């Protein structure tokens, strides 16, 4: 039955697959780079921190380390894309994983900090898609993976800027899928829960179902193998978050306040 078929072509054999991983110097990105390198993918890793990037690339034999800053927009992406096309002749998968996080309550809103979050988490992804899409459309195949967050599902305390940036990515990814899947370009949305990284280390609260980056990478690879549109994990936590999405506000707000406090 067609509605049971994968929404994207499953990726199970990574040998020789040309993967550009943006945001590959730490956390989930570094763990995913290690996993895909072990599976035989041809990797290009990009991030702002040249030293961290070089360290990750050194553990992924044959990978390319291409320093870039996603906040510099399409020209920065285009520079690295052109280098990759010269080296590889094409791109099979782009993983847009660069992200930033700053806990922020409503009374702590700082417009410049909000803009900085949106520049990386939202505009950095949109610029990345705009930069690689002509190549993928010309190839009539390829895939784009966007790393979001379960913080996108509903408003949460301390996530005034971060949650908004990730919620926009969900809508963006859905729109991309509807336009691009018929033209041979797969779109994957990756929605992690809490993963132990430098960013989540800022949280002053106990994070439920906290995962290690290596486990998150394994979940992402499994999602590619299933041809998912959305891969969310850990499911014992993300399924609860999805359930909260359907609650009316009259129930949702008191429930969240009871769990998180005022």
Write a structural description.
By secondary structure, the chain is of the alpha/beta class. The protein has one domain (13-260): Rossmann fold (3-Layer(aba) Sandwich). The chain is 46% helix and 12% strand. The chain contains eight helices and seven strands, in the order E-H-E-H-E-H-E-H-E-H-E-H-E-H-H. The protein has helices at 27-38, 50-58, 74-88, 111-139, 162-180, 213-226, 235-245, 249-260; strands spanning 18-22, 42-46, 64-65, 93-96, 143-147, 186-192, 230-233. The chain has a seven-stranded parallel β-sheet with strand order 3-2-1-4-5-6-7, sandwiched between helices. The chain is globular, with a radius of gyration of 18 Å. The model has no long low-confidence stretch (mean pLDDT 95). Belongs to the short-chain dehydrogenases/reductases (SDR) family. Keywords: Oxidoreductase.
What topology does this entry show?
Layout: E1 18-22, H1 27-38, E2 42-46, H2 50-58, E3 64-65, H3 74-88, E4 93-96, H4 111-139, E5 143-147, H5 162-180, E6 186-192, H6 213-226, E7 230-233, H7 235-245, H8 249-260
Parallel strand pairs: 1-2, 1-4, 2-3, 4-5, 5-6, 6-7
Helix pairs in contact: 1-6, 3-4, 4-5
GO cellular component, one term: membrane
Protein name: Short-chain dehydrogenase
InterPro entries: NAD(P)-bd_dom_sf (IPR036291), SDR_fam (IPR002347)
User: What structural category characterises the helix and strand content?
Assistant: alpha/beta
State the low-pLDDT regions, or none: none
What's the level 1 CATH class? Alpha Beta
Alpha plus pi helix count? 8
Family: Belongs to the short-chain dehydrogenases/reductases (SDR) family.
Protein name: Short-chain dehydrogenase
Keywords: Oxidoreductase
GO molecular function: oxidoreductase activity
């Amino acid at each position: 039955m067609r509605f049971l078929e994968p929404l994207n072509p499953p990726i199970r054999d990574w040998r020789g697959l040309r993967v550009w991983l943006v945001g590959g110097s730490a956390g989930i990105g570094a763990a995913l780079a290690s996993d895909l390198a072990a599976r035989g993918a041809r990797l290009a890793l990009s991030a702002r921190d040249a030293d961290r990037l070089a360290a990750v690339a050194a553990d992924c034999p044959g990978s390319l380390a291409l320093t870039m800053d996603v906040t510099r927009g399409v020209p920065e992406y285009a520079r690295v894309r052109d280098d990759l096309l010269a080296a590889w002749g094409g791109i099979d998968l782009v993983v847009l994983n660069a992200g930033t996080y700053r806990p922020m309550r409503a009374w702590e809103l700082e417009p410049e900090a909000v803009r900085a979050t949106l520049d990386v988490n939202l505009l950095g992804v949109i610029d990345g898609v705009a930069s690689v899409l002509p190549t993928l459309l010309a190839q009539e195949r390829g895939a784009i993976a966007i790393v979001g967050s379960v913080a996108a599902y509903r408003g949460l305390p301390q996530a005034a800027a971060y949650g908004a940036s990730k919620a926009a990515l969900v809508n963006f990814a859905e729109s991309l899928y509807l336009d691009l899947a018929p033209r041979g370009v797969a779109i994957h949305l990756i929605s992690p829960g809490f993963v132990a990284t430098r960013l989540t280390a800022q949280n002053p609260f106990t994070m439920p179902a906290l995962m290690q980056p290596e486990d998150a990478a394994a979940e992402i690879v499994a999602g590619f193998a299933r041809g998912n549109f959305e891969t969310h994990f850990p499911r014992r936590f993300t399924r609860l978050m999805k359930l909260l999405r359907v609650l009316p506000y009259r129930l949702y707000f008191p429930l969240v306040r009871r769990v998180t406090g005022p």
